[in-house]
């Protein structure tokens, strides 16, 4: 009998994150592997804001509670994003092989675990993983693969899903708040590959503002302004129109809402009387509790369309859309057009105890205010 | 020489409506009629809120200034909606004949005039009128025809343009504020012809509330509630869901914005995780200066799409869309499915002076706060 000693970050009920997390030790017997089972081992598991909302119980996408880890009561396993390596496959498995790097296709997989034993017999989800690399074809590296599932996929769909007729000659612009976010950094890069210009709005008064601006411009951003500048009449009426010139600000990406979202709308270019294209405000975040709001006359006279974007929902409704998006992002990584956005990696020795595992996650969660945290396994 | 003595309500510059209106007397020599000219005589000219915004200079659709009335400086003629009778046609005109009842196809025609001499040589607008009735085919009456151009056309397009897959079995609902508006009354009637159920939100505390509710239910409305009821948790969580039952509130029609628009969104039915249909908030008014606003989490979790609707813009961009809409509304009148919504008619003797004409319009404008005013010519 070959036992793998594994750990998972679990909880029995959503609530105060500092109190509910449990470290669950469990084992996987690889000699008892079923013919349609695979064992995967974690390479990297990010901590995303939506993971924390899910732990708090405030997220509309609910976790799955399971008894598969052998706990006395069903538990949910934290996390929705993770990069794994396939380490064992049953004899009837031909879609995955050992050495493949894979990510779960669907949300709520419960990625915060060192290992998982997965049965491929679920007819509703026969291919539960998307392969992103393999031992034979090491086409992307760990930094690229670790976070491919959520942030670059979100950025790709935000650019791809709402405006279908992007001008190929560089006359179309995107404006986004949250310019310094992970998604924002992927947006500027992916926009550049399509000759779309970008204005990234960042928070005013950050001590490292010059570095942030430089990073965004180096990634391919066209312009970077602060939220105070974006709100000012001078930028709305003169400076930004001067940059955009004969072009159009046709897409506003909003992850903040409130006044910040309203300001984005003031920068959109549209004329209901003469244009056939409707400028779009797309909101993909704003959980701070501020409403979505903007001028009703601007909405009417510019013919603004406002839509909600949620990667998790798109994936649940149409899993294949996620597969296709990840493929497009992989291609961008392979071509060198996309660079991974830096994150803070926290190393975890996979042989450590489940208590150590919880401790590391609690640290990562506490630090995730300051930037994206990713647990890297060795 | 046969002279028609005509009057028009004109202005040389937008501004304070009580001060800028001029009565311009002019004449039309019918014996000098060109081969591609027609003379039309007013039957009814409504006063709409958008006309007043245009006079104030605050409307994005600007008036045309003209010297055709023989004034010393160019003037704009008030009004965008009007029913006319063709009284003279030039020898080469075959698209209109005397006795036809017509409405201008495009906005900013300048309808507030007793007569108009129109040349059909404009290659950009070769058919400037939509025929709604004629001496040979008196299929609709004056009350139906007088206001066909704007309010029922708006209601028709609001229902037709955003939700394409209405459930034919009566499981889809519309919620609208401004339930007691002219557009609101056409919405309940047109919705009923398609087996769409309606909730009309009216202002709380009106002394004639019982009559308003009865009128809306008689017109075919399903439910009528006050704005205070609509805002209440009891209506949002229990009463309205009880009415809607297994159905969906899939379209919210908003002409108010602010809290009232936000409340409509709270009544929309949507689930981003499982539904493919996006519930729509469609805003077609809200010039009170309140922003468009609603909960960002509702937007995200319900997958709400918010769009702007503006009949004038649709018509300017695609005049044929207006022709087709009026045809559909005419069919509904002819079939008896649509009843004209009462307005306050003010009679004007077409032989009176232009001073009298201005006086009547100023009265009508002052009274238009209390309901729709229409100048009827005799």
TrEMBL record, chains A, B:
Pfam families: ADH_N (PF08240). Belongs to the zinc-containing alcohol dehydrogenase family. Quinone oxidoreductase subfamily. Keywords: Fatty acid biosynthesis, Fatty acid metabolism, Lipid biosynthesis, Lipid metabolism, Mitochondrion, NADP, Oxidoreductase, Transit peptide. This is enoyl-[acyl-carrier-protein] reductase. It comes from the Eukaryota. Its EC number is 1.3.1.104. SMART domains: PKS_ER. PANTHER family: ENOYL-[ACYL-CARRIER-PROTEIN] REDUCTASE, MITOCHONDRIAL.
